[in-house]
Structures are given as C-alpha cells and as structure tokens.
Amino acid sequence: MTLMTRQLNRKTLVLLPVLAAALLCGSADAKKKVPQAEPGQFDYYALAMSWSPQYCAGSGNRDPQQCAVGRQLGFVLHGLWPQFEKGYPQDCSDEALPNAVRVKYEKMFASPKLIGHEWSKHGTCSGLSAEDYMALSARLKDGLAIPAAYRKPAEPIRVTATQFKEQFRKANPALADESVLPFCTGAGRFLREIHACYDKDGHSRSCAAVEAKSAAKSCGQGSFLIQSVR
C-alpha cells in the first residue's frame, strides 16, 4: 500500500462519521412539519355547513351530543376554510386557541369539541386572530339564510343540484353565481354538506372552478336526497 493510499484511507475514516451525522440531521429535518402556506396567504373562504341528519345517520352513536333524538338540527357549522383557487392550506401555525375564545364560541358548533380542531387546521391559515376568525365564522354562518324547505324537513326531500342552488339564491338574492355548492355522499345519493364561498372581506363570490367540479362530481346522480331531521 502506498503512502498516498494510506493517507486517503485515513481521510475517508475521518469523514465517514461526519457524513453519517449530516445524513441523520437531514433525515430529521425532512420529517419536520412544514406549513403549506403562510397565514393570510390564500384566495377565498369556503363556509362549510354540514347537513346534521346525514352525519348522524352514520355517526350518531359516536356523537350523542349532536345526534340525540329531538335535537332536530339541520345545517350546522363545520368550519370556515381558507382556500386556494386550487387546493387549500392547513395547519399554518402552532398558535393555540385561547380559552376565552373557546368558551365564547364553542356553542357555535353542534359539537363543541370541534372548535379546537377547526382553529388549528383552518383558522391558523386565515391570518386573523382567533377572536376575529371566530367572529367572522359566526357572522357568515348567521348571514346565510337557509331556504324554509331545508331548515327542519319532517320528511326527506328529493331535489336536483340546480333546484337546490336556485332555492339558496332566492333566499339570498345577493349571492354570487355558483357561490353555494352542495356536496353529496353515498355515491351521490345523499346531501352531506354545502360550501358557501366568500372573499377575504366576507362578501359572496363564486367558488373556484375546481371546487365546483368536485361538488358536481360528488352529487353525480340526477338528484339527491336531503334526510329529514329527527
């Protein structure tokens, strides 16, 4: 073995631990949670309102607070979701929900435990304080008039997507075109929830084309059923 070869081997032995440590650090860094977007960097809001009877038809035993017989809940707030024109951000910071805000707004949700999840996953991407985000959620929720036929139907209602959207436009004349979208479940047979779309200032706007396409695909049958309240 030549002197040069021995020197190269010694250098390799010295460098191997350094390279191994660098690879380990890189692996750890790759596993760190990286937010998908900066807070406040999004295009519009989708106000998601779930149809409680459909949720309770599948999850009633797991959520007696929302699904107890006699509550007769119809549309309930799921959340206010920042959206991109394609896709959406989530978990934009680890800012905790202040307890005072939790206590003030938890009854806005059919299941109070939902408020913490909605804040951490969606609210942190709004760029608003927790108080302002929840206040905006409440304002948009309360400002969307539910058509009389869909408030507390005693019997199931069968309707087409076009008829459904027309009823919401009649109840809310200021809505933009394609600003309220029905989403279905059960291979398009049952209404699951609606998305009502707003700009960052809370004014009605059309939902993004990809969201409208997703809604149409989910309600792909000729009509769908709105379950009765209980």
Structure description:
It is a single chain. It is built from 8 helices and 6 strands; from the N terminus they run αβααβαααβαββαβ. The chain has 230 residues and is an alpha+beta fold. The protein folds into 2 domains: 1-32; 44-226, Ribonuclease Rh, Chain A (Alpha-Beta Complex), CATH 3.90.730.10. The strands form 2 sheets. It has a 4-stranded antiparallel beta sheet. Strand 4 (180-185) and strand 5 (190-198) form a beta hairpin. The relative contact order is 0.16. Residues 2-35 have low confidence and may be disordered.
The sequence of SSEs as H and E is HEHHEHHHEHEEHE
Strand content: 15-25%
Largest sheet properties: 4 strands, antiparallel
Low-confidence stretches: 2-35
Number of E-state strands:
6
The rough form would be described as globular
The neighbouring-strand order within the major sheet is: 2-1-5-4
Per the CATH scheme, the topology name of the largest domain is: Ribonuclease Rh, Chain A
Q: What is shown here, in short?
A:
The chain is an alpha+beta fold.
List the helices and strands and how they pair.
Layout: H1 3-31, E1 44-51, H2 52-59, H3 64-67, E2 75-83, H4 99-105, H5 114-121, H6 130-143, E3 157-159, H7 161-171, E4 180-185, E5 190-198, H8 209-218, E6 224-226
Antiparallel strand pairs: 1-2, 1-5, 3-6, 4-5
